[in-house]
């Protein structure tokens, strides 16, 4: 028997569907009893007319029966629940680099914005509002509180490296937003394909006009003169002598005061030598930082013979990296930093990591030390004011191979694990320099006399 709270009760489909009104509401509700589902499913039909409400209720009922027959989920989802289910079946297929990006993006942006919202209520409009919220996040009170809280965090044995958000961009780059767009699209596509979402919302980064010219910006790299300055500076940087006095507190080295000169002890020299050879290796190979991070000695063939019988290096990139496994032939100069690393490191068996600390553990990131190195060498920014990062070494490799190696873009793209389109988009300006002998050649007398007037 229906409860007293049910007004105007009507049973259809042999009692499997109960239509009724709630107190003080003319909208008709539906209570469904679906075989294979524990308890009742209660949904609003959104209709006030009984015939229309019955039609909607039967569609909902048939939809749930279909889900039960095909072993699909029948529960109600929030975005956070949906994300967790998607992540449980997706995580194992991704590289370490991709996992870190997605978990960071989800915890910092996606779940705080979408988290508790039912998936049925995630409309195109709600997704579109996300981009406004995201662009202004770090300038909002919430973002500023997050930065202040991060500054107060302390490192522990469990979390030896705490992110204090010191380099967070107040206004995200368009590329960053496009990467977040890709994650959202994957989640919603999977949810629609597996029957967890009826309608896939539109996810599209708006065209943010920040006063920049349209087109693809050049990637910050080093020109040949700057590269020579950097390599020369690193030689003296590694050999730098110990100076000053580094204070101790409870038997441990403490922080230096501004007027004191930083101590350079054996560990510093080890780290600096590692950074120098890492910089040179990336500049000569064009590997991505995460590809170099996973590189093991067994992945390197020092004695590959080319068709002319000359020895070349061959590097096997791990399948767990961004674009999967591939073979890379670096510039032969890459052999020198690798040979130095073998003498420097105590971990040189085939399965040992090439870039590791004294305990044999992978070094997460050289970014902070590399930035400090560039500041000392007065090379942090390029001529356009763009700040160089570790990734600038990959761009330097591409620039030098195109400009001085005359490598076809298609071959270079294959070696670097990217597409010819991406190479053309970011390095097509080099073609002009390659053809300088034609573009700037001597003009015929007749043409020269006309142009010079």
Write the layout of secondary structure elements.
Elements: E1 7-12, E2 17-21, E3 28-32, E4 41-44, H1 50-69, H2 79-90, H3 96-114, H4 124-135, H5 141-151, H6 174-193, H7 224-238, E5 248-249, E6 252-253, H8 266-285, H9 289-293, E7 300-305, E8 311-317, E9 326-328, H10 335-344, H11 367-376, H12 391-403, H13 409-416, H14 420-427, H15 429-434, H16 436-439, H17 445-451
Antiparallel strand pairs: 1-2, 2-3, 3-4, 5-6, 7-8, 8-9
From the alpha-carbon coordinates, what is the Rg to the nearest angstrom? 30 Å
H/E element string? EEEEHHHHHHHEEHHEEEHHHHHHHH
- Based on DSSP secondary structure assignment, what is the total number of beta strands? 9
CATH class of the largest domain: Mainly Alpha
Going by CATH, the homologous superfamily of the largest domain would be Intergrase catalytic core
Which outline best applies? elongated
Count of separate DSSP helical elements: 17
The appropriate CATH architecture of the largest domain is Orthogonal Bundle
Biggest sheet, in brief? 4 strands, antiparallel
For the terminal residues, how far apart are their CA atoms?
101 Å
Indicate the proportion of strand residues.
5-15%
CATH topology of the largest domain: hpI Integrase, Chain A
Overall helicity: 40-55%
Number of domains: 3
Oligomer: single chain
Quick check: average pLDDT? 82
Describe it for me?
It is a single chain. A 4-stranded antiparallel β-sheet has the order 1-2-3-4, with helices on one face. Strands 7-8-9 form a 3-stranded antiparallel β-sheet, with no helix packed on it. It contains 17 helices and 9 strands. It has 453 residues and is of the alpha+beta class. The chain folds into 3 domains: 7-69; 79-193; 225-243 and 262-437, Intergrase catalytic core (hpI Integrase, Chain A). The protein has helices at 50-69, 79-90, 96-114, 124-135, 141-151, 174-193, 224-238, 266-285, 289-293, 335-344, 367-376, 391-403, 409-416, 420-427, 429-434, 436-439, 445-451; strands spanning 7-12, 17-21, 28-32, 41-44, 248-249, 252-253, 300-305, 311-317, 326-328. Residues 211-215, 242-249, 255-261 and 443-453 have low confidence and may be disordered.
